Amino acid sequence: MADNQLPPLRDVIARHELAAKKAFGQHFLLDLNLTAKIASFAGDMSRASVLEVGPGPGGLTRAILAAGAQHLTLVEKDARFIPALEELHTAYPDQLTITENDALRTDDAALLGPGERVILSNLPYNVGTQILIKWIQADPIWWRCAVLMFQREVAERIVAKVNTKAYGRLAVLSQSRCQCQLTLRVPAAAFTPPPKVESAIVVLEPLPPEACFDDIKALEIITASAFGQRRKTLRRSLGQAANHTNISSEELIERAGLDSKARAETIDIEGFQTLANVWRQARNQSSK
After folding, report:
1. Cα atoms in the 13 Å half-sphere on the side-chain side of 264
2. What is the residue extent of each domain of the chain?
3. What does the pLDDT look like over 242-281, one tens digit per residue?
4. Is 176:219 a contact under the CB 8 Å cutoff?
């Protein structure tokens, strides 16, 4: 069915009485030109199984289907939206699967099955970062690309470079596993109801296996410790991470070839990866 044969989204929302819930971080994107542009960032989806988390009434869903996705799987936690999404399923019965579940608990790779896989989502504001971390933790990363909308501040943190205000744990984790690009800023007025902040689209593409950092758990521990106390030097801030080993934070930093007086925001991604490797080695030695 062509998208222009579907009822207007505002009519669907009114008919099903679908008010956005602040507790779920919900804001509806109804601009068809904008949703089409967002879907286009995923490229050719004609052979792809696509995952959308938090589709709500189905604004971006319509754009993904219209863009020719081979198959689209929706994961929606809020049961209120299921009847409206079922109407889309009636229009696209062979192209759409709806799953009522919590995206933090789903096995997304299994839901999509084998073959080329893409993620395309306007993520709920309150759990967007957690869901992103879940996806980049996958080993190996199972998706070709992820086109994700976040609050603009979060998007800027994902793509941030060293020695900038936005640079932190999220940048190190994301860029250690993916190429990350902020492709579009979305004004608050584009949403119903409008949020208090702007949003932005980030496109993530997994790095080649040889460039993809292999111990994301170690990197999480190191960055949580280092950026947990941003104003302190590495020698002080890495004390918590060093507690898991039999060496001091100063020795940990020395083995990594870094300056113990430096602060976390001045250490590039390669430096954090080296710290994570040294920490892992020290932890393994202490457990013997």
Report:
1. 22
2. 3-206, 216-286
3. 988 889 999 999 999 999 999 999 999 999 999 999 999 9
4. yes
Q: Express each pLDDT in 143-170 by its tens digit.
A: 999 999 999 999 999 999 999 999 999 9
Query: Within a 10 A sphere around the Cβ of 191, how many other Cβ atoms?
Result: 21
Q: Which residues contact 228 (CB under 8 A, 6 or more apart)?
A: 237, 240
272 — phi, psi (to 5°)? -70, -35
Q: Which residues contact 238 (CB under 8 A, 6 or more apart)?
A: 222, 225, 226, 249, 252, 253, 275
Domain 3-206 has CATH 3.40.50.150: yes
Which fold is adopted by the domain 216-286? Helicase, Ruva Protein; domain 3 (1.10.8)
Q: Do domains 3-206 and 216-286 have the same CATH topology?
A: no
Which token pair is 217? 């758990």
Residue 164: both structure tokens together: 């900038």
